[in-house]
């Protein structure tokens, strides 16, 4: 259902507000570059600092500008189950093709709590949902057994796996079956994960190089491994640069350097430090994205 390259879309700001013109242009560029879909209002989209009206507006605008040319998987996760249900219902009504829900953060629910949380959302909507396992942000790792239990429910289509473990991802695939789609949540692990059965990626780097990310994933899916490896090596410095500081600081700084957005984040995220900014500029120049 959801395969290929999905861009974890940033949310551009200007003078403290969502920059709708810049967001529309980013969406158009992504669609024209050949990605398979867009994911607004995820971690990369600074969803944690968007108020409800902004969150809904970003989802609606992305769907409107995409115009059905690519799929839109709306980020609707929350550590409050009722809020996650509400946001996912909104995404459904707005025309999203699916919803991405991070596992509840801060609360640190038990494995049973995760099962009940996702079940409540899946039962409340008709669009497919994708689980998002990222223990580095949530404080809890969903076990493969928990993910498989959730996957058995109607309406649960797949998993964005960002735990950094191939063993964990392979165990999920083994338990959840072939109809359950695993997407990489770590750009640099996309090719390794696809080699063992993942179907694509929800990528930060695609904000900067959508066409190349999409081409790498297509090559991997087609079994053209030498070409996929070549593109992986070409993109790897850029992928690694996206982790120089907390996401989305590097990717938004890069887009600002490229002249696509204003260099603006929301507190508590702060301007990229001078040393890492200089390193990022070197990588962008070497990749041909900015002038030397």
Can you walk through the features of this model?
With 292 residues, this protein is α/β, with parallel strands linked by helices. The protein is built from twelve helices and ten strands. It has helices at residues 20-33, 52-66, 81-94, 111-124, 135-138, 144-151, 166-176, 190-195, 210-221, 225-241, 249-257, 274-286; strands at residues 4-8, 13-14, 17-18, 37-39, 71-75, 98-102, 129-133, 156-161, 181-184, 200-203. The strands form two sheets. The protein has an eight-stranded parallel beta barrel, surrounded by seven helices. Strand 9, helix 8 (190-195) and strand 10 form a beta-alpha-beta unit. Helix 3 packs parallel to helix 4, helix 9 (210-221) runs antiparallel to helix 10 and helix 11 packs across helix 12. The protein is globular, with a radius of gyration of 18 Å. 49% of the residues are buried. The model has no long low-confidence stretch (mean pLDDT 96).
Q: What's the shape? A: globular
Q: Please report the total strand number as a whole number.
A: 10
Q: Overall mean pLDDT score?
A: 96
* Amount of helix: 40-55%
SSE order, one letter for each helix or strand: EEEHEHEHEHEHHEHEHEHHHH
Rg over C-alpha atoms, rounded to the nearest angstrom: 18 Å
Which consecutive residue ranges, at least 5 long each, have pLDDT under 50? none
**Order of the strands making up the biggest sheet:** 1-4-5-6-7-8-9-10
Query: Major sheet: size, sense and barrel closure?
Result: 8 strands, parallel, barrel
């Amino acid at each position: 259902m959801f395969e290929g390259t999905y861009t974890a879309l940033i949310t551009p700001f200007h003078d403290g507000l969502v920059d709708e013109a810049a967001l529309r242009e980013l969406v158009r560029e992504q669609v024209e570059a050949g990605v398979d879909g867009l994911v607004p209002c995820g971690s990369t989209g600074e969803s944690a600092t968007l108020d409800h009206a902004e969150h809904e507006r970003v989802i609606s605008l992305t769907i409107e500008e995409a115009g059905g040319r690519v799929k839109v998987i709306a980020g609707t996760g929350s550590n409050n189950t009722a809020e996650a249900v509400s946001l996912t219902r909104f995404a459904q009504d707005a025309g999203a093709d699916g919803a991405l829900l991070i596992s509840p953060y801060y609360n640190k629910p038990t494995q049973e709590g995760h099962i009940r949380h996702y079940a409540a959302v899946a039962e409340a909507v008709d669009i497919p949902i994708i689980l998002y396992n990222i223990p580095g942000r949530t404080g809890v790792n969903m076990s493969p057994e928990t993910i498989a239990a959730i996957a058995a429910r109607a309406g649960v289509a797949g998993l964005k796996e960002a735990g950094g473990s191939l063993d964990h991802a392979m165990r999920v695939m083994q338990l959840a079956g072939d109809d359950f789609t695993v997407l990489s949540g770590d750009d640099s692990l996309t090719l390794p994960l696809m080699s063992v059965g993942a179907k694509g990626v929800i990528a930060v780097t695609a904000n900067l190089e959508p066409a190349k990310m999409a081409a790498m994933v297509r090559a991997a899916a087609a079994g053209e491994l030498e070409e996929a490896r070549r593109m992986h090596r070409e993109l790897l410095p850029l992928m690694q640069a996206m982790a120089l500081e907390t996401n989305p600081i590097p990717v938004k700084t890069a887009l600002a350097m490229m002249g696509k957005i204003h260099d603006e984040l929301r507190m508590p995220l702060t301007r990229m430090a001078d040393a890492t900014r200089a390193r990022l500029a070197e990588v962008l120049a070497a990749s041909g994205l900015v002038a030397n």
